[in-house]
Inverse folding.
């Protein structure tokens, strides 16, 4: 058997100062067989003696380096002889490779010491994980609010760490730390809900630290370590307001007309503005529904819009409202495209022009300050108001929650109910309308019996 130590890359013609360390391979030959294995060591070619196959004296600790190579050579020779004794024959290349991995290479690999990132730096790990998740789902990472939220959390933790003497390592997180961090957020006059979002993201980072074994500290699971949240004032457009908006003449302003049309579609479909940009003619499907007229059931064909939502990748079917059908035909099924930022800017002007200026009164919390706010309705309208309008109007009309949720793409009732914008009296009216329908059905049934 013959054993040589060869460099994987000789790097001829490259100046010594520009050379890079290259791995040293172990080349084993016996009879007509050959096996190449890594030694796990690297060296600069300029510090390697190719004739003697060992490190030059110019390499720091060259003596120890060469001694380790010699020890490895001895282990290979010993392993070869041991195999012959055990098997009563010489190994082939595949057998000896597996034998070396089992007897020499695997046991000799030291366990890598787990590198524990600082708590603040763990936010970068989370950001990277979120980015990979979004890319695997075929989604953009440039404008995602999730990645932005963790970036902002990291910025706040860095700022808090510089301003506070309490520390911010895994074991520093206590209930007292939580209260001091809350005071820090209050000093920035953040709303209660925004503070709650920051605390929620921080708890996610601590959960990640627990999962990866970076810490056993679970104080963030304490009931006192909570994310505060209050119901924010939201508005919606009722049926009359949607009709008023759709009927308004914007012929003198093409941009406002386009924004109005997109917003009306959002109100009639419950889709996000990002989903409206994807609508194509081939997404219109036909399906039959059963109707009952004078005790006779018949089937009629209706158009539906089938969309796979951008955010949740959920396929939804939406009955095509007449307003939606008219708008799609108007644009030949190629709706105008606007960024969310521009849309939210223009939609307020659209609603203001159409006279949606009812005064809305509500309270707002920022930091420790609670303020009474009065604003005209159009100032509170954004792209998401369309989804809220769709959900709220159909809820008021008595449609089953599960049917509305199937169209809006919600899987949890709790999340869906955030889209229902009704005060206590309006909720009572929904129930009163339900009672009215039941009474009408009873009266119709009695009338039918009398006629029979």
């Amino acid at each position: 058997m013959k054993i040589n130590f060869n460099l994987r890359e000789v790097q001829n013609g490259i100046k010594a100062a520009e050379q890079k360390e290259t791995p040293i391979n172990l080349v084993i030959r016996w009879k007509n067989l050959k096996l190449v294995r890594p030694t796990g060591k690297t060296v600069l070619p300029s510090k390697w003696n190719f004739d003697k196959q060992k490190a030059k004296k110019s390499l720091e600790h060259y003596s120890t380096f060469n001694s380790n190579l010699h020890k490895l050579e001895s282990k290979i020779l010993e392993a070869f002889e041991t195999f012959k004794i055990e098997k009563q024959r010489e190994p082939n290349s595949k057998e000896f490779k597996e034998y070396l991995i089992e007897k020499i290479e695997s046991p000799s690999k030291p366990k890598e010491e787990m590198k524990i990132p600082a708590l603040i730096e763990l936010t970068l790990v989370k950001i990277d994980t979120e980015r990979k998740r979004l890319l695997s789902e075929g989604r953009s990472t440039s404008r995602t609010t999730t990645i932005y939220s963790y970036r902002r959390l990291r910025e706040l933790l860095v700022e808090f760490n510089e301003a506070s003497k309490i520390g911010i390592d895994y074991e520093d997180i206590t209930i007292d730390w939580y209260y001091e961090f809350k005071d820090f957020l209050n000093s920035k006059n953040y709303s209660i809900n925004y503070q709650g979002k920051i605390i929620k993201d921080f708890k996610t980072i601590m959960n990640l630290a627990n999962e990866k074994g970076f810490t056993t500290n679970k104080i963030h699971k304490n009931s006192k370590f909570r994310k505060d949240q209050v119901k924010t004032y939201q508005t919606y457009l009722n049926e009359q307001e949607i009709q008023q908006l759709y009927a308004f003449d914007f012929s003198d302003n093409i941009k406002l007309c386009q924004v109005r049309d997109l917003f009306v579609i959002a109100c009639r479909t419950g889709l996000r503005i990002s989903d409206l940009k994807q609508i194509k003619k081939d997404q219109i499907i036909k399906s039959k529904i059963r109707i009952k007229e004078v005790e006779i059931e018949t089937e009629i064909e209706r158009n539906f819009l089938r969309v796979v939502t951008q955010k949740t990748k959920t396929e939804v079917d939406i009955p095509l409202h007449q307003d939606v059908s008219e708008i799609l035909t108007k644009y030949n099924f190629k709706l105008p495209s606007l960024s969310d930022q521009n849309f939210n800017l223009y939609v307020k002007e659209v609603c203001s022009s159409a006279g949606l200026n009812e005064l809305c009164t509500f309270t707002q919390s920022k930091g420790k300050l609670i303020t009474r706010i009065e604003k005209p309705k159009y100032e509170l309208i954004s792209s998401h108001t369309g989804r809220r309008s769709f959900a709220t109007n159909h809820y008021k009309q008595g449609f089953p929650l599960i049917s509305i949720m199937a169209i809006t793409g919600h899987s949890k009732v709790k999340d869906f109910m955030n889209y229902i914008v009704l005060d206590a009296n309006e909720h009572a009216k929904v129930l009163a309308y339900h009672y009215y329908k039941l009474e009408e059905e009873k009266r119709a049934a009695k009338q039918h019996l009398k006629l029979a």
The chain has three domains: 2-108, 119-221, 239-421. The beta strands are 2-7, 22-30, 33-43, 48-49, 54-55, 284-293, 296-308, 315-319, 359-366, 369-376.
